[in-house]
């Protein structure tokens, strides 16, 4: 693996240039005590060579004094922090650690595994893009493993790496690994975690951490580091409508009035129409001001200052939103709350609630139930104790603009603060408003394609699978649809079977009929995207012009041409419906590939070479592509 | 413009840009929610980055808080020059505080040792200044990667009226939500650079062309070697031991503090690129030069409890 210090000492400037393109991945590690979490993180830090000389010396001497590894380095000692914890040999808080490769900077939230865990884990998970769930190969999936996974899914993390550790202690057995993997996947799917990469490792010996090592030739997948390097940085925030909580009003003089904040959803450009919430007033963006000059566009993740063309009253705590897709406003919510204080949460008692940059007073109406994080059972409860999670109704003293947490972590996540001692006593996720705030002036909301999409937690689009008969279009399209469905997406699959036999029953295979066939399919697909659906179309569609026609019916970024590339010989050999045989025998005329040409796409959004990947892998690739393209909101499911 | 175009832009929001945005968010949050913030300006490279971020955060306004330097009277002369130049350049108020009790006692690192000197001139001095001006939030340039015990530090750290840090009262920090509430007399220490590493700092200085004290660059300087540390003879207050002769050696500093307590390293790196290059191959972590860290592994934590940064 390439790391910082592999730098060729020649041209630092080139290296620095490359560094400026590096991205940032935040992840959390979860495991029970002694699963080897500290060893694993210590090794990642060690192997990425960010340990400096004097730290190494300290490690060697600590290892001799305190270590558990005889004279070898005990990596776990690298990551133990506070002195008190070191004595108890157990970590009790969230620690953040850093390492970097040529490609990425990583921030690791390291949280301990004992009972007091929920609070720390939830804190660490709130900012993570990915979770490593560590399991001891000898013990398999434990109650704790399930608890960690549940918390991770609750906080909206969807990329999971299951690291099955201590493989050296089970003789590097493939069977043990597969068993752990199978039982984990079964459970994970139940709580909506479908993106799981399972990797057998030995943190102690280093197998499959950075490099494969000799122990497990049967494992062909990526090492842990490779998995981290190729993980996608979730782009949910960017795919969302524009959101910016106003942090501070910048008024250096009479002529300038700017609204400073960090963009937490979508993007903004001068001229965009914004809606200010909770007031409901609209205003147009004049400038995006930064110390480096005005921007033509700013996106989620950037801190900027906006000025508006219209003089409207805006102050800290307001939420600036896209006027076409504003956030909701309410003063009564349903929310999941994680309690973090020794003093229990008492219904009826007022707390301060901070969401975005707005702080309001909130009282908990009677608790609906609490959740046993080990069994996921709902239990009747009157109050919440430290580390407990419950479903509550909240009544606010004033309206709060918000999005459901599943849609946007920043406009849907909140903390609760004790009004007397000022401690942060709870954190929560807004699920839904129980009623729109009454004193808010509502502008008529048009039900349009954008709103329907947002309601479905996705961006509507068409996936157009093209390729020879027998290329695998339907198989792959089916798999993709199943996966999307499993993630809670709203889809519809159009293929020859449901179109040719019904809507297009009157059409044959003449050129004119082919064009009409495609036109109708394209129109139906477009209507369905209007309804907010992700539409999969599986049609041979051999001619570029036909596919161009279909593309032209949709907006930019809404049409994905997916070329299922299978050589004619292969497709013909498969001949699942016996059509090639009939065509060769002259019983079918104008058959694509035989006596009618197939024009391969010149610039498809995706090109899938079925000679190299299985149908399953192809489907995964399509899903990955959709994620990158921001078609999906997070794959998050709330478990009732 | 389609969402895809936005996304391709987003994917190029580099780690430095994300760190920058996060730090700016933290700076603004304090200004919006606290009554009298101040920025602890220690003249080093981290302070330079923090100040630069503040200039960006409040642009086109000037950062709405003063800079505070707690001077021990033993800083390198070039640091003091740079400090005064910087304050003029950015047009912010600069408060320089020296602990008058320490001056009266004639505290001197050569005579009283590093621990007492640091405690009186720095720790006590800082408390005095915060009390005297009634600051309720102080930005500090500390990073989590500096030391093992810092890995768990919050971005917002609450201190009692006596400036003590109580591990039990530190608040969980979720998402981008910081709890800035405090009782009368209590104050916050806020670390906008928490998630930056030393390498990030250097890369950002390079990217943004941020001015730093010349002592970071290698040059010939008068040096004596003591207990393995290279100490620069910055003025005539440094008593030379029998047989000690300052020698001109090409050195630079990885961290800056009181000159008698700050070890130099031999180096020829006289440009930013060269420093970064040296840093990548050198493999010696930056605290090594700080004499105060050598008294026991958990000493930083002890110092933090006492109110030192
Ligand atoms: N044999 C073996 N032992 C391991 C492995 N990973 C960790 N250990 C040992 O398991 C024990 C607990 O590890 P540690 O990293 O402290 O666990 P944590 O509590 O999860 O941080 C230590 O004695 C480690 O040396 C592994 O892959 N193989």
Helices and strands, with pairings:
The complex is a heterodimer of chains A (640) and B (309).
Chain A: H1 12-19, E1 23-30, H2 37-47, H3 53-66, H4 83-88, E2 95-100, E3 104-110, H5 117-125, E4 130-136, H6 143-154, E5 159-165, H7 174-190, E6 195-200, H8 224-230, H9 236-239, E7 243-245, E8 248-250, E9 258-262, E10 267-268, E11 273-277, E12 281-289, E13 298-299, E14 303-308, E15 319-322, E16 328-339, E17 350-355, E18 358-364, E19 369-371, E20 378-379, E21 389-402, H10 409-412, E22 413-417, E23 424-433, H11 449-455, E24 461-466, H12 473-486, E25 491-495, H13 496-503, H14 511-530, E26 534-538, H15 544-552, E27 559-565, H16 568-574, H17 579-584, E28 606-609, H18 615-628
Parallel strand pairs in A: 1-3, 1-4, 4-5, 5-6, 24-26, 24-27, 25-26, 27-28
Antiparallel strand pairs in A: 2-3, 7-15, 8-9, 9-14, 10-13, 11-12, 11-15, 12-14, 16-21, 16-23, 17-18, 17-22, 18-21, 19-20, 19-21, 22-23
Chain B: H1 3-11, H2 15-33, E1 37-40, H3 45-58, E2 67-70, H4 77-90, E3 94-97, H5 100-105, H6 109-133, E4 137-139, E5 156-159, E6 187-190, H7 198-208, E7 219-226, E8 229-232, E9 247-252, E10 265-266, H8 272-282, H9 299-306
Parallel strand pairs in B: 1-2, 1-4, 2-3, 4-6
Antiparallel strand pairs in B: 5-6, 7-8, 7-9, 9-10
Bound molecules: guanosine-5'-diphosphate.
The site of guanosine-5'-diphosphate has 19 residues of chain A, from helix 2.
Give short descriptive properties of this protein.
heterodimer; A: seven-stranded antiparallel β-sheet; six-stranded mixed β-sheet; 18 helices; disordered C terminus; B: 309 residues; alpha/beta; four-stranded antiparallel β-sheet; 9 helices; globular; disordered N terminus; binds guanosine-5'-diphosphate
């Amino acid at each position: 693996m390439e790391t910082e210090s592999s730098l060729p000492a020649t041209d630092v400037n080139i290296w620095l240039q490359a560094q400026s393109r590096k991205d940032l991945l935040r992840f959390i590690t979860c495991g029970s005590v002694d699963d080897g979490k500290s060893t694993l993180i210590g090794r990642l830090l060690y192997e990425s060579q960010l340990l400096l000389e004097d730290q190494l010396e300290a490690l060697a001497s600590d290892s001799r004094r305190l270590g558990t590894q005889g004279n070898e380095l005990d990596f776990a000692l690298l990551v133990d922090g506070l002195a008190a914890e070191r004595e108890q040999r157990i970590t009790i808080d969230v620690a953040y650690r850093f390492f970097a490769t040529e490609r990425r900077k990583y921030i690791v939230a390291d949280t301990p595994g004992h009972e007091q865990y929920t609070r720390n884990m939830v804190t660490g998970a709130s900012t993570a893009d990915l979770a490593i769930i560590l399991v001891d190969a000898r013990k398999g999936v434990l109650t704790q493993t399930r608890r960690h996974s549940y918390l991770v899914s609750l906080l909206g993390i969807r990329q999971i790496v299951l690291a099955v550790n201590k493989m050296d202690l089970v003789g590097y057995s493939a069977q043990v690994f597969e068993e752990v993997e199978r039982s984990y996947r079964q459970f994970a799917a139940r709580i909506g975690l479908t993106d799981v990469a399972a990797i057998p490792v030995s943190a102690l010996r280093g197998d499959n951490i950075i490099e494969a090592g000799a122990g497990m030739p049967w494992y062909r997948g990526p090492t842990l580091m490779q998995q981290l390097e190729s993980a996608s940085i979730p782009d949910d925030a960017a795919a969302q409508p524009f959101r910016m909580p106003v942090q501070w009003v910048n008024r250096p003089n009479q002529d300038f009035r700017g609204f400073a904040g960090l963009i937490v959803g979508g993007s903004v450009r001068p001229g965009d129409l914004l809606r200010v919430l909770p007031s409901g007033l609209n205003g147009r963006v004049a400038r995006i001001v930064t110390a480096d000059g005005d921007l033509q566009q700013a996106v989620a993740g950037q801190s900027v200052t906006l000025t508006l063309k219209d003089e409207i009253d805006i102050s800290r705590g307001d939420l600036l939103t896209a006027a076409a897709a504003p956030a909701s406003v309410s003063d009564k919510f349903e929310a999941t709350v994680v309690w973090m204080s020794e003093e229990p949460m008492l219904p009826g008692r007022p707390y301060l609630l901070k969401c975005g940059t707005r702080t309001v007073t909130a009282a908990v109406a009677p608790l609906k139930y609490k959740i046993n994080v080990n069994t996921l059972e709902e239990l009747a409860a009157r109050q919440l104790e430290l580390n407990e999670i419950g479903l509550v109704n909240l009544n606010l003293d004033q309206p709060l603009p918000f999005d459901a947490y599943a849609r946007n972590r920043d406009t849907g996540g909140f903390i609760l603060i004790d009004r007397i001692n000022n401690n942060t006593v709870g954190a929560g996720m807004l699920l839904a408003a129980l009623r729109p705030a009454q004193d808010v002036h509502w502008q008529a909301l048009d039900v349009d394609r954008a709103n329907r999409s947002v309601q479905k937690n996705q961006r509507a689009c068409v996936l157009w699978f093209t390729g020879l008969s027998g290329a695998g279009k339907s198989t792959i399209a089916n798999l993709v649809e199943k996966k999307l469905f499993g993630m809670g997406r709203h889809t519809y699959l159009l293929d020859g079977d449901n179109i040719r036999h019904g809507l297009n029953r009157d059409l044959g295979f003449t050129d004119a009929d082919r064009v009409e066939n495609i036109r109708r399919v394209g129109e139906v697909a477009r209507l369905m995207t209007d309804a907010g659906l992700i539409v999969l179309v599986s049609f041979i569609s051999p001619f570029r012009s036909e596919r161009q026609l279909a593309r032209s019916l949709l907006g930019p970024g809404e049409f994905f041409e997916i070329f299922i590339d299978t050589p004619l010989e292969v497709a013909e050999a498969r001949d699942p419906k016996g059509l090639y045989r009939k065509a060769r025998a002259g019983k079918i005329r104008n058959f694509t590939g035989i006596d009618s040409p197939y024009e391969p796409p010149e610039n498809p959004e995706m090109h899938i070479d079925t000679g190299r990947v299985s149908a399953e892998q192809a489907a995964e690739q399509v899903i990955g592509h959709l994620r990158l393209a921001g078609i999906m909101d997070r794959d998050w499911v709330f478990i009732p | 413009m389609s969402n895809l175009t936005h996304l391709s832009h987003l994917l190029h929001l580099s780690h430095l840009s994300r760190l920058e945005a996060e730090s700016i968010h933290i700076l603004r949050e304090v200004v919006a929610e606290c009554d009298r913030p101040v920025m602890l300006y220690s003249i080093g490279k981290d302070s330079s980055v923090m100040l630069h971020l503040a200039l960006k955060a409040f642009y086109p306004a000037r950062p709405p808080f003063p800079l505070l330097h707690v001077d021990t009277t033993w800083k390198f002369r070039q640091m003091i020059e740079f400090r005064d130049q910087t304050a003029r350049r950015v047009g912010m108020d600069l408060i320089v505080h020296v602990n008058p009790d320490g001056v009266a006692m004639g505290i001197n690192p050569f005579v009283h040792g590093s621990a007492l000197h640091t405690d009186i001139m720095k720790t006590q001095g800082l408390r005095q200044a915060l009390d005297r001006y009634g600051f309720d939030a102080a930005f500090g340039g500390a990073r989590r990667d500096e030391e093992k015990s810092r890995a768990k530090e919050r971005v917002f750290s609450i201190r009692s009226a006596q400036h003590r840090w109580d591990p039990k009262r530190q608040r969980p920090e979720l998402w981008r939500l910081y709890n800035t509430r405090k009782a009368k007399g209590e104050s916050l220490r806020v670390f906008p650079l928490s998630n930056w590493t030393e390498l990030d700092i250097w890369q950002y200085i390079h990217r943004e062309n941020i001015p730093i004290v010349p002592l970071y660059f290698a040059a010939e300087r008068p040096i004596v070697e003591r207990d393995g540390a290279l100490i620069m003879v910055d003025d005539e207050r440094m008593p030379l031991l029998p047989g000690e002769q300052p020698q001109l050696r090409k050195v630079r500093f990885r961290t800056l503090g009181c000159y008698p307590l700050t070890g130099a390293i031999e180096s020829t790196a006289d440009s930013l690129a060269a420093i970064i290059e040296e840093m990548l191959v050198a493999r010696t972590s930056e605290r090594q030069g700080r004499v105060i860290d050598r008294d026991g592994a958990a000493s930083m934590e002890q110092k933090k409890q006492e109110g030192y940064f």
